[in-house]
Amino acid sequence: MTSSSPLYAQVALDVPLFTALSYRVPEHLRDHIAPGQLVQVPFRNRSKTGLIVALSTELDDPTLAPKIRDLYDLVDPEPLLSPHDVRFLSFVADYYLSPIGEVVRLAIPSAVRVEGIKHYRRLPEDQRTPAPNAPQTPLSLELAGALASLSDTEPTPVAALRESHAELTYHRLAELELRGLVEVTYQESASLKPKTERYFKLLPRPRGTLTGRLGANQLQILKLLDGMPSLSLPEIREHIASPYSSLKALEERGLIESWEEEVYRDPFADAPVEPAPSFELTLPQQRAVDAVARARQAGRFEGFVLHGVTGSGKTETYVRIIRDTLAAGRRALVLLPEIALTPQFVGVFRSHFGERIAVLHSGLTAAQKFDQWRQIRRDEVDIVIGARSALFAPINDLGVIVVDEEHDPSFKQEEGTRYNARDMALVRGKLARAQVILGSATPILESFYNARQGRLTYLAMPERVAARALPPVDIVDMRRGPHNPTAGPSSLLSTRLLGALDDTLHDQKQAILFLNRRGFSPCVVCEACGHVFHCPHCDVSLTYHRRMEALRCHHCDFSLRMPESCPECLHTGIDRKGVGTEQLEAHLRELYPRARVARLDRDTGAGPRLQQLLTSFRRREIDILVGTQMVTKGHDFPDVTLVGVVLADMSLNFPDFRAAERTFQLLTQVAGRAGRADSPGKVIIQTYTPEHYSLLTAREHDFESFAERELAQRQAMGYPPFGHLIALKFEGANEGATVQATRNYATAARRLLRTERAFGDAVSMLGPAMAPIARIKNRSRWQLLLKAADRALLRRFTIRTLELAGHFDAGQPHHRNVRIIIDVDPLNML
Predict the structure, then answer these.
(1) Do 706 and 781 share a domain, yes or no?
(2) Is 102 within a domain?
(3) pLDDT band at residue 14, thresholds of 50, 70 and 90?
(4) In terms of Cα–Cα distance, which of 464, 465, 466, 456 is closest to 291?
(5) Does residue 204 have a cis bond before it (omega within 30 degrees)?
(6) Is the domain of 598 the same as that of 692?
(7) The dihedral sign for the CA sequence 370, 375, 376, 377
(8) What residues pair up with 331 in beta bridges, in sequence order?
(9) Is 556 labelled as part of a ligand binding site?
(10) CA 252 to CA 783: how far, in whole Å?
(11) Contact at 8 Å (CB) between 703 and 442?
(12) Sequential DSSP letters for 18-73
């Protein structure tokens, strides 16, 4: 490109705009600018920080050139994201029809992207290391003055430095970084700083020069430091409870020296690490490892569906694949569906790979997340483990992505940019020429079908390791009346399940009872007038929680004290209908007063209590664990020999074409918790629909038969994987405005279907319709569902519909008070 031709930067700002904005690059910045950098640009009447996503010498619309404004400044001399990462973010924004700034927010922590967070600290002369391309000329007077104004102990915000030295831009101040004169840190607030630790070491001294007496603590400190390169303050405190005055005295006498070093906050520093077991791969495991190795050696992207039954050794297979990837000089990303699984995986991977592991998920504090992100960006780790948001970690030389339990719906983001981490892992892998492994005992039908069609490579692991048998599954028909009337609430637990519980406790083994409904009772009704206690803000009934003696909404968290009488007729006879995990736990405590019973759901498993519960169960401090689907996700409990499913029909009753698939997945996954060690397991499923094919195939551990039946139904209806869906969802406080917005978009869609044959013959629209849950948090909810066999055609139709309805107009003037959500490939139909 010649210096005479204009250079334009497309900049993503954290504003609700669907495209990046174009800015002209000033001449003095042309040689220093690149995609992935943070820049300051004018936006309306103020300055904002954004990310460069592309550079070009031409505009899409050349007539706009006179209106293009110059960008102000570079915030960072080096890009924060690689070209691969920037292309990936652009793809995500484009595919999910999401504002690009919203997607950038997923990739860069707030401590980095927020304006005014870059800090400088003046370095002592002996710690300065200039960059190879640092200027050789003397420092200008302006920069020398700015450097002199900096502290050598406390970091100064660069924004504050610019205020006191108005003649200096960010770009000019970056020369201090190139010359190695300053230390750069990113701090969101005073409470979020890089963590430092003080270190101590002995100073050399001639023999016989020690004068004066030393205290016992001082002598012990000298002994600890003798022969060691250095020790941190926490390491010294392990031997001396309060060494501060002794350390100060030794430093004043010139016997030791100290300094500060930056250290990272480790969210799993206290987690135990077991020695890495040595294991021989089974033949299916070895075949999977070899298949991935062939793709790696050829340097090509390839997606794999690793279909391994529960207990078949998928984790060991991941370990071997990642070990080979690291040996080839590349890095690994492991995505997990549930934060609860993270410590278990971190422990396994640390035992094999040491400390060069970073962890990213929403359960970390802001400071922990900040530290983990910086480690990854600095190439100080080889493996990143985390939930769906870890997909956006700035990993260089990415060689393999593992998506464990790929069937899990939690990989789909349900707020903001509604991306699916499983699908986008394949996209990121393709951009990086990496291998992507989608692992599950119950692959989603889309993955299974794509493997059949040759788009993905199918790897089967049909048997458990060590020739352990899959547990037999017994289906109990609950329609035949009370099974054990003396045991408590009727039809809650069958005689067969109670007998199996007796045997399990007698054998000193453990049991898991699965009930996917928390609380004590999901519905409270007046016996006299039939009044049902509903949430005043959502279109759902309130759930009774006996421990809090309150009624609660599980959507908006509204709660009220359990009333003594009906608010409608004042009758005192209030009946609690249905059963939840809290009631089941209480019932089991009555039945088995000597057994140790615990419950794992969102009420009991919040924060650190989650790991405490899982650790207690793994240590056999709990005999019976009652839980929601939190107990189904990949846990390995060697002493669990019984799994009971109390109500297997619940997930079948959702108004969702995926209901049967999710039921099969849940039952298969929870059944897989039984019999994972030497003792055989048993599974008992209680149901009111024992003839349903999802239960019958789960009983036989027969994924292929289930898939055949379900795929045939999907094909007949044109649902995924044979068709594609985009949902347009409308939410507003005013129901009339919400309905009107929905109708306007439906009218635009109908006009396209009527006037353009290419759409009318291939696209169908379902709705407009009220959402199954019509109101949440006092917001009315309506939706349109667009369906087509051709993904590209459906996308074009959706964009045209949105354009006709004025969706891309700034501020959406016709529907300011209605939130309009575009959900590409929706999973949640409620």
Answers:
(1) no
(2) yes
(3) confident
(4) 456
(5) no
(6) yes
(7) positive
(8) 398
(9) yes
(10) 73
(11) yes
(12) SSPEEEEPPGGGGGG--TT-EEEEEETTEEEEEEEEEEESS-SSGGGGGGPPBP-E
Residues 651/659, Cβ–Cβ less than 8 Å? yes
Lateral strand order in the sheet of 182-186: 156-157, 118-122, 182-186
Cα separation, 692 vs 475, whole angstroms: 11
For residue 604, how far is the Cα from the chain centroid?
Answer: 21
Tell me whether residue 523 is annotated as binding.
no
Residue 278 within a domain: no
Residue 343 has pLDDT above 80, yes or no: no
Distance, in Å, from the CA atom of 539 to the CA atom of 529, rounded to the nearest integer, reads 20
Kind of pairing between the strands at 640-645 and 510-514? parallel
Cα distance between residue 774 and residue 776, in whole Å: 7
**Same domain assignment for residues 302 and 417:** yes
Question: Are residue 237 and residue 132 in the same domain, yes or no?
Answer: no
Q: Looking at residue 475, what is its pLDDT?
A: 93
Residues 6+ positions from 264 with CB-CB distance below 8 Å: 195, 371, 372, 374, 375
Residue that the structure tokens 């997945």 belong to: 665
Sheet with 302-308: strands ordered across: 357-360, 383-386, 331-335, 398-404, 435-440, 302-308, 457-461
Q: What range does the domain containing 254 cover?
A: 196-263
Q: Are 425 and 305 contacting, i.e. CB atoms less than 8 angstroms apart? A: no
Last residue within a domain, chosen from 113, 144, 161 = 113
101-114 residue pLDDT tens = 889 888 887 655 55
CATH code assigned at 445: 3.40.50.300
pLDDT of residue 190: 46
- Give CA angle at 468 (465, 473), nearest 5°: 125
**Chain mean position to CA 500:** 37
- Of 333, 344, 346, give the one whose Cα is nearest residue 390: 333
- Is 97 a domain residue? yes
**Across-strand partners of 332?**
383, 400
> Which positions ≥6 away from 732 have C-beta within 8 Å?
738, 741, 779, 780, 815, 817, 818, 819
The CA distance from 753 to 662, in Å, is 33
pLDDT digits 0-9 by tens, 791-824: 999 999 999 999 888 876 654 446 778 999 999 9
Per-residue pLDDT reduced to its tens digit, 31-44: 889 999 888 888 88
Q: Give the C-alpha separation, 519 to 582, whole Å.
A: 5
* Average pLDDT over every residue of 547-571: 88
Domain count, the chain: 6
pLDDT for the residue 487:
41
Residues in the chain: 830
pTM over 0.85? The answer is no
Q: For strand 550-552 and strand 543-545, is the pairing parallel, antiparallel, or unpaired?
A: antiparallel
The Cα 67–Cα 481 span in angstroms is: 77
Cβ-contact 783, 728 below 8 angstroms = yes
The CA distance from 560 to 420, in Å, is 36
Give the pair of three-digit tokens for residue 213: 């007496």
Domain co-membership, 804 together with 673:
no
Q: What residue has token string 């692992």?
A: 439
Question: What order do you get walking across the sheet with 597-600 strand by strand?
Answer: 473-477, 682-687, 640-645, 510-514, 624-627, 597-600
Residue 337 lies in a domain: yes
Q: Which residues pair with 22 in a beta bridge?
A: 10
